[in-house]
Amino acid sequence: MTGPKNLESRTKHIRETWAKRCNKVLYMSSVETDFPTVKLNVSEGRENLYWKTIRAFQYIHQHHLDEADWFLKADDDTFVVIENLRYTLSTYDPEKPLYLGRRFTPFISQGYMSGGAGYVLSKEALRRFVEGFDTGKCTHFSNIEDMALGKCMETMKVEPADSRDVKGRQTFHPFPPDHYLIRQPPRPRPCSVAFVSRGGK
């Protein structure tokens, strides 16, 4: 996912680094350019991010479904170690309805994957996501893209798969690198005060 104003400041760096290790890369935008970008019928802006995601997956389903087993959605400020991602996905079957990422648990019963960390849909998950909108089973119930997609995944019986490594550590990270590299100070705990009465006073 990218936009016209980010092609030179962000997206070109993806093209020159980790995108080279993908089987296929599509840069989704609101306009077509010779970068190249795919023009989606949606305006830029955070309030349109979920529609952009819907249109992107519909486009992929129509034109590229049989060119890959797994489909990674990442924003233009994301860095991916593709070799590690391939290793994580190697134990799963792309013909099963699965999606992976950094799982958050509020609001959706089975949780949802953080959009900031990027997430991966199996081929069957992609089919079901598009079917959800074609049949009306999924709706645009929220502008919060990752949560709304998670709701559709739950509706379409797409299960969240475990993306942690063999030591139980997260492999998808939604926050900037310094959040993980620099020790974070503990959050202050609220004070509790107990009043003890003496002699009935």
TrEMBL record:
Organism: Zoarces viviparus (Viviparous eelpout)
EC id: 2.4.1.122
Protein name: Glycoprotein-N-acetylgalactosamine 3-beta-galactosyltransferase 1
Organism domain of life: Eukaryota
Family listed: Belongs to the glycosyltransferase 31 family. Beta3-Gal-T subfamily.
Domain Fringe-like glycosyltransferase: 5-163
Pathway it works in: Protein modification; protein glycosylation
Nuclease listed as a keyword: no
Membrane topology: Single-pass type II membrane protein
